[in-house]
Amino acid sequence: MQKTLFTFILIYLTFSTEVFCQTLFLEINGSNETETKIIDSPNYLKTHKDYFSIKSEIEFIQNSLFKKGYIEHETSEVSKINDSLFSTTINLRTKYKTVHVYYNNQLINKNILHQISTKVFDNYFELPFKQIENALKFINAKITEDGFPFSTLHLDNISIENKTYLKANLNIDSPKEKRLVNEIIIKGYEKFPRSYLKHYLKIKKNQAFDITTIKNKTEQLNDLRFASQIKSPEVLFSKDSTSLYLYLEKSQSNNFDGFLGFGTNEETNNIEFDGYLNLNLTNNLNFGESFRLLYKSDENDQKTFNVNATLPYIFKTPIGLDFELQIFKRDSSFTTVDQSIKLHYQINSKHKIYTGITNLESNNLLSTINTSNITDYKTSYYTIAYEYIKPQSYNLLFPINSNFYFETNFGESRTNQFIKKTNSTIY
């Protein structure tokens, strides 16, 4: 008895598996050969694992035809031809190529519509039927950028004007009050310099809220050497305010490199230092400032001392200060002192302009008269410069993607014999 029952169950499971695993086929025809080719043009899925998949594919084809302008198409009931083949017929009927969309010119700027349509009038604009969906998304994105994140829009009162185009009204549902960024809250690195938000990222209070634009801007935080973004910004909406949360962390960007040796000069009995020192300090005061000290001394009795500092966003303005001092000494022959001070204006995260003054002075240290090849001179000139820099923070080996620097100088140089006006350009 048990053996017979086991055999029956085995046979049942075998046939059941074959039934459930059977491949089903879908065939969709038009009312004529031309329509069949149009329907078949998207290369719809013809093989399916079950009837539910067949119904989903038919709905997909219907939606695709609607977007192409066949809004009046009719679909017959699905017929079962045999155990594995199912068929349906779609009558496409009229194809509408254009839609005249009527709008409220008090709610939508014409400049927005000109970006999606070549025919824009005072109260309506024309669109190819297949572009309606993307056009509505574009308009909604522009409205959102203007501070209305909860706006929705749709077409209603759709009617047929003639055999080629339709007529519809564009309705926009949005709050009366524009959403502004009322508060910016920084989590993680609370002492992050706020001037960088305002002038580097261009994120500030009381500007129109648009989360997409804000996310694109905060990605630039990863280009800073002293801070990075932990996760994407978040927003808290209340009835009458909008709070923006930024999640940052402070990066350690200080570094020190070098070696120093010292000894006593046999001729002067003074202590002299030889070696190399490179010190870089960044954002230790939480202002985004930077300081660099470089010292070199070699066996050829050449000494180089260089110090430069950058103070960005002085008094919370987009104006910063750059200072540099470089001293070069060649044994006991001559010294050269190069001093420069510049003001820079941060246009945005990639563009910066400079203006400043530079003084360069060289002094002959030799006391002998026969030193005509070494002459004292002094040069002073004014500087105007432009810099473009595009970082790539993901590449530690090459952190700069592209960099362009243009500088022009004008001034005069003085020697013991004459005064000469100078002009120069640096790329």
UniProtKB/TrEMBL annotation:
GO terms for cellular component: outer membrane. Residues 181-237 form the POTRA domain. Pfam families: POTRA. This is POTRA domain-containing protein. It comes from Algibacter lectus.
